[in-house]
Amino acid sequence: MSVIRFIVKRFIISIVTIFLLVTLSFFLLRTLPGNPFQTETLLTVEMQEKMMSYYGLDKPLFEQYLTYMQNLLQGDLGYSIKYRNRTVNEIIATSFPVSADLGLRALAVALPIGLFLGVLSARKRGKLTDYLCVLLSVIGVSIPSFILGSFLQYIFALKLQILPMAQWQTEWHTILPTIALALSLLAILTRVMRASMLEVMSQDYVKTAKAKGLSEGKIVRRHQIRNASIPILTMLGPMVTSVLMGTFVVEKIFALPGLGQHFINSITGLDYTVTLGLTVFFGIFMVFANFLVDIAYGIVDPRIRLMK
Amino acid sequence: MSRSEQFMIENPFERVGATDHANDPIVRPTISFWSDVRRRLIANRVAMFGLICIILILILAIIVPELSSYSYMDQNLSNTNAAPSRDHFFGTDSLGRDLWVRVWVGARVSLAVGIFGSIIPSVIGIVIGGISGYFGGFIDTIIMRAVDIIICIPSMIYVILIMLVFGSGPIPLIIAFALTGWMGAARDVRGLILQLKEREFVLASKLLGASHLSLIFKHLVPNTLGIVVVGMTMSVPGAIFQEAYLSFIGLGISPPIPSWGQLANLGTAVFRIYPYQLLIPALLISITMLSFNLFGDGLRDALDPKLRS
């Protein structure tokens, strides 16, 4: 199968996924009991109905769905019901950069350290260094980011008072949330890189390289790490997801003005358009990330393309 | 089996006299696959440590709420935020509720969600993957395309949406996990069955007239159980984490029923003054996830000799 056909196939799958995601989210959200205006106690039933018709929420569901899809194709996610005069696009535009900033920082910390520890651990297999790395990775996987975040706050902001507690203002403010988010990523990366290196180290081409007299350093750099990094590529897709999800809670703990709080508030406040808009945004973002990763993977490792 | 025995009795060429068994007796007890796995697992001290922790936590979760004189809902407003003491091992919360009892009732909820939240999706995955791999062709293509698509959808978003539809509580949470978590197991099982169905033992039971269903679920699926069980063990900490995560942001388990995530959430509100209220549920979540991870690692090593050094 040629590269182009592979890309086209992945692209079609991604488009179908996004369509399915939007449709399912739309109908799931609209089957929820209650309406967004119930919580405002001053509104009578007639006024609630009037508000519903003002936002077009009283029309037949399928008609609403068609309108929504039409707007979506033009990149318009609609108005928030709760925040007056704010579109979902505006909410995303102001708060997504914060979430993305935090996520990228965490990735930038976790990726090099995780890969380094993975390689180190595999090279020193069975030694103390290896056990320490494995221990770190198991512990890292086992501590949820929200718990780690709270403890970092307690130790560094409250007891030692060397770092700010919350908010997103200076570089110093970014340190604790970044660590809270990065540790579990780092742990997973170490684990996968270690397993992958161990597998590569026993391959025949490594023996060949050794037999033809390459230096140890060259074998590790040119033959082992390069091949061992391929599985890391597949992980990047799911990792983007977990970083985004992780930012929700980390944002909550550190009171950061990211997307997470809007998502959670809109769910509890039945702000349909915001919940739906953010779900669609996250969904497209993640599906697109997965698509890119798949393509990169298929190009780097021809075996994947040939498999199907 | 019964068919082959009948066949042997009616065999006109039956051997009379000395049998192979008598000439060559088996002196050592035979070690089956699973007893070998058990032997290796017991030899792995780290995995055993994980298992012991899990069992200990399970026992405490079962007996503590039964034996304690407090219930998880009893409020005592004259004794709020008390430090751990002999009356209240883990202290009390901001409404004067005994945290020792609340933590272990929470353990019931969290463990139930964790364990059923990974067993049920795995079983669904086995059935779908088994059918897909065994029949192949058109059915396989349809199912696998569907899996390709569903697996791309970030499951957390769906868990949240499903929770909204069914309400918050342990059972909706397990339903949500069941609906979103079966694809991985289905893929694994299908892949294994594709390899296994070409093997001779499958041909043999086909010749003996085994039906499709008994071929899939009696002969093929049991041979894939190893990997599925490892996957299941490894997904328990994931499910516990998701429950804690959802309860932490206020969507998972709603009060008054406690769960570890919810206790941690309540704990963060006051942890600057009473750190133990967060520390205790946080430690329990971490220890439980750690134990399942260690045990799962050991189980994988025991099941797959290729991975051992």
Q: How is the secondary structure organized here?
A:
The complex is a heterodimer of chains A (308) and B (309).
Chain A: H1 3-30, H2 45-54, H3 61-73, H4 88-123, H5 128-142, H6 145-159, H7 171-201, H8 204-211, H9 216-228, H10 230-254, H11 259-268, H12 272-300, H13 302-307
Helix pairs in contact in A: 1-12, 4-5, 4-7, 4-10, 5-7, 6-7, 6-10, 7-9, 7-10, 8-9, 10-11, 10-12, 11-12
Chain B: H1 2-9, H2 20-23, H3 33-43, H4 45-67, H5 99-135, H6 137-152, H7 155-166, H8 170-180, H9 183-196, H10 200-207, H11 212-248, H12 260-270, H13 276-303
How would you characterize this protein structure?
The complex is a heterodimer of chains A (308) and B (309). Chain A is mostly helical. Chain A has a domain at 95-257: MetI-like (MetI-like fold, Orthogonal Bundle). Chain A has 13 helices and no strands. In chain A, helix 1 (3-30) runs antiparallel to helix 12. Chain A is flat and about 85 Å long. The mean pLDDT of chain A is 80. The longest helix of chain B is centred in the middle third of the chain and has 37 residues, at 99-135. The model of chain B has no long low-confidence stretch (mean pLDDT 80). Chain B is mainly α and 309 residues long. Chain B has a single domain, classed as MetI-like (MetI-like fold, Orthogonal Bundle), CATH 1.10.3720. Chain B has helices at residues 2-9, 20-23, 33-43, 45-67, 99-135, 137-152, 155-166, 170-180, 183-196, 200-207, 212-248, 260-270, 276-303. The chains are: A mainly alpha (308), B mainly alpha (309). Chain A binds chain B through residues 13-14, 16-17, 20-21, 24-25, 28-29, 31-32, 125-126, 138-139, 141-144, 146-147, 150-151, 154, 158, 241, 244-245, 248-249, 252-253, 264, 267-268, 279, 282-283, 286-287, 290, and chain B through 145, 148-149, 152-154, 156-158, 160-162, 164-165, 237, 241, 244-245, 248-251, 264, 267-268, 271-272, 275, 278, 282, 285-287, 289-290, 293-294, 297, 309. Chain A: InterPro entries: BPD_transp_1_N, MetI-like, MetI-like_sf. Chain A: Belongs to the binding-protein-dependent transport system permease family. Chain A: The chain crosses the membrane at residues 12-29, 102-120, 132-155, 175-193, 228-250, 276-300.
